[in-house]
Structure formats: C-alpha cells, structure tokens
Amino acid sequence: MTFEDDVNVTHGAPRRAADEVAGGVAEATNGTLDSEVMDAEEWLDWFEELDDAYKQEQRDKLLISGLVAGLTLQALGDLYNLSRERVRQITGQAGVNARDLKIKRAEQAARRERHLARRVYGMSLSFPELDVDEIAEALECDVPMVLRGLGNRRGLHQKLGPAGDSHRTSEADLLEALRQWANQTTRATGDDFTAWATGRGIPGRQTVSIRFGTWNNALEKAGLSHLIATRGGSRPHLDDATLWATLYEFFTSDAEHFTAQGYEAWVRGKDRASLATLRNRLGTWNEMWRRTKELLRYAANRDGTWEWAEDVLAIIPAECERKIVSPEQCIQALQDVAARVPGAVTVQKYEAVRRGGQPAAIVVQNKWGSWIRALHMAGLDDRMSGKARGRVARGEVVL
After folding, report:
1. Do the bridges between strand 235-237 and strand 323-325 make them parallel or antiparallel, or are there none, so unpaired?
2. Are 159 and 131 in contact (CB under 8 A)?
3. What confidence tens digit (pLDDT) does each residue in 76-94 have?
4. What's the pLDDT tens digit per position in 302-357?
5. 337 C-beta neighbours (distance < 10 Å), count
6. CB-based contacts of 385: which residues, under 8 Å, 6+ apart?
7. CA-CA distance, 236 to 234, in Å (whole number)?
8. Contact status, residue 266 vs residue 250, Cβ threshold 8 Å
9. What percent of the chain clears pLDDT 90, i.e. is strictly above it?
10. pLDDT > 70? residue 371
11. H-state helical runs in 185-306
12. pLDDT tens-digit map of 236-272
C-alpha cells in the first residue's frame, strides 16, 4: 500500500485520502497553505490510528505532512525516534523549509482568526440574547476567541455575577446619613446632600433614590417628611413599558459599550429616558440587564405567550410622546384602583391592578411627595395600611 493510494480503512481506523494529505504538502512547498489542511491535534489523532507498518513505509511523507499540520521538528522526531536535525534534513530534501512553513502557518492562523472574529461580531448583532458560551458552541471555537471577536460588544454577552454587593452602604447607614445632613444643612435639596455626602465618602442622592425607590421615599423613611416638596405641576412622563423598550433598543444597538456608562453615552442627544430615570423607575443596572436579557431571549423565539414582552416589543421609543401627568390624574387613578380592590391600597396592589395609561406608582409618589400623602390627598386615609396610619399618628409623615 502506498501513501498516494491510501483511501481505505486500516485495522478499523479511518484515514485521510492520500491526495488530501499530499495536497497539503504540495501547497506548503508552493508557498501557500490550504485552509483544509489538518491542524496539529487532528494530525496526531489521525497518525495514532495508522498501523505501524504503514507509519514506517510512509515515514518521510508522514513527517512532511506532520510539519505542514503544524507539529514541531522535535515532536515529529519523537514519533520516529529521530533528532530534530534529521527531521529537518528529510523534509528539506522535499523542498519544505520548516522556518518558512512556520511563518506561513502563523499568517494563515491570523487570517482564520480575523474571519472568525467577523463571524462572532455578526452573530452578536443578529443574536444579542446569546451568552459567550453559547456563541462559542455555535461557532465551534473557544471562549477567549469569542471574547476577542466581540470587542466592544463583550459586555452584552458576558454573564453577570451574583446579584448584590456585600460592600455597599447599608440602608440603615444611608438613613442615618440623611438625618445627620438634615441637622446640618440650611439648603435641603438632593444636590446639597450629594455635595455633603461626597466629602464624607457616602453615596449621594442618586444612590439613595435607587435604594429607596425615590428621593422622597428616603426622606420619609428617615423621618424627614417636612423636607419633602410636592411636585404640583404637570410634568412629561414616559410609562414603564417605554422605558423597557428603550433598554431593548440600547441592547440591540451597536453602542460603544453595554454598561451603565455606555447607556449614558448612547442616550446623549437622543430623546430617551436618562440613566437616573431608569434606575429610579426600574431598579439597579444589573436588575435591568437581567430583565432585558429575558426580553432578548423571548424576542429571539417570539410566540405571543408573554403579554408584557409583546407590549414592550411593540413600542418604538423614538415615536413615543411623553405623556403629561397631572396631580389630578394621580388622584383619579388612586380612587379608581381603590374602588376595585379590597382593603389597604398599597403600592403593590396599585401596580397589580392599575389600568393601562394610568401613572405608575413611582409617578404618583413623586407627584405628591410620598404614597401616604397621595392617599390622603385622594381622600383615602381609611384605606392606608396599618403601618402607614401608625407613621401618621407618630408624626413621621406630614400631611
């Protein structure tokens, strides 16, 4: 049996056709490399399945094909108990220069990586819901290669760590900081608190607003209701579904970075909700990202079963007009919900049954300074929870 006519199976082990392997040798000696030539790992697997007689009979050609596949002179010599120099002599007699071949293989590997990187990036644009591991599996490549190919889109596909941060300032510490600031300030505004807190290594107003839902909620929980200012004027407002649609738009865009800071850069100059608005209304960045990831996965296999997602996906943020929400509309919404639910009218109950188009609970709170004050203005004092009535009785909330 010769190297050239080996197209059969020896001792049950499959072999590459002779012209396929020899073709790689010919390409190498002609100054190019065929992209279908086996790599070193494939060649070793193939070599191990050959019978010993065949290995000896075709030694020289196998050494050449192994060199073309990317094995070193030393590795090939070890297979045949030959020195590196002897392998160099054998392959050199066939016109194969190991050093030149190494350079050509490096150039070929670089071309392959560039091609794969383009495929990775294209898959990211088409399937933003996939994780890094899923892209690697789909393209049959390793994770480091995917991460290199993703470039600025890496953050879109990497899994988030566990929720929560053990090093963050506790809510109790934030409330105590608010009380200390209130005792020292003559200008009770959120910006003033931020300036005061920064000099003491304490998170500012934005963090406080995120942790307690709104700035006014935090003031209320700190026993500082007298500092709450009612926002009586009519203000433009985007509903929550539009905010989620904006996040979906961001995560399916070709933004420079898919982080909170990346969102701030992306939204600049657009008529979209600010990062602060998203955090105040929808939660932390990680919470928003996890929820949007679920939305991305649903959108990839949309079947009409998730009503909330369908509503969000139907929204085009650029075409949405901000709604004007008046204090009267907030009162009417509270009264409408109170007429349809039994017992105390809590934020959770309100959110569960409010009709489409009615302001979100956070808007009601912002409009009247607190949920308790909003219920009072709606004439719903008797529908406050026991906890809320207790706070009013203790003077913690100024009505």
Report:
1. antiparallel
2. yes
3. 999 999 999 999 898 888 8
4. 898 998 899 899 988 888 766 667 788 889 999 999 999 999 999 888 988 888 77
5. 22
6. 344, 346
7. 7
8. yes
9. 22
10. yes
11. 190-198, 205-212, 215-221, 240-251, 260-267, 275-282, 285-300
12. 567 788 899 999 999 999 888 998 999 999 998 888 8
DSSP 119-141: HHHHHHHH-TT--HHHHHHHHT-
| pLDDT at residue 14, rounded to an integer | 39
Q: How confident is the model at residue 169 (pLDDT cuts 50, 70, 90)?
A: confident
What is the spatial distance between Cα 178 and Cα 194, in angstroms, rounded to a whole number?
10
What integer pLDDT is reported at residue 345 of this predicted model? 92
pLDDT above 80: residue 31: no
CA-CA distances (angstroms) from residue 122 to 205, 249, 294?
A: 40, 17, 21
Orientation angle between helical segments 84-93 and 59-69, nearest 10 degrees: 100
Query: Are the C-beta atoms of residues 362 and 283 closer than 8 Å to each other?
Result: no
Q: How many residues are listed for the chain in this entry?
A: 399
Using only C-alpha atoms, the chain has a radius of gyration, in whole angstroms, of 34
Q: Is 251 exposed, middle or buried (0-12, 13-18, 19+ CB in 10 A)?
A: buried
Tokens 């409330």 correspond to: 175
Structure tokens at 350: 């309100």
Instruction: Give the pair of three-digit tokens for residue 68.
Output: 């073309």
Cβ-based neighbours of 258, under 8 Å, separated by 6 or more: 153, 155, 156, 250, 251
pLDDT of residue 86: 92
Q: Are 10 and 3 in contact (CB under 8 A)?
A: no
Average pLDDT of the chain is 81
Closest of 325, 322, 330 to residue 365, by C-alpha: 330
CA pair distance 58, 197, nearest whole angstrom: 79
CA–CA distance, 15 with 119 (Å, rounded to integer): 31
Q: Quick one: which of 41, 23, 42, 34 has its CA closest to 105?
A: 34
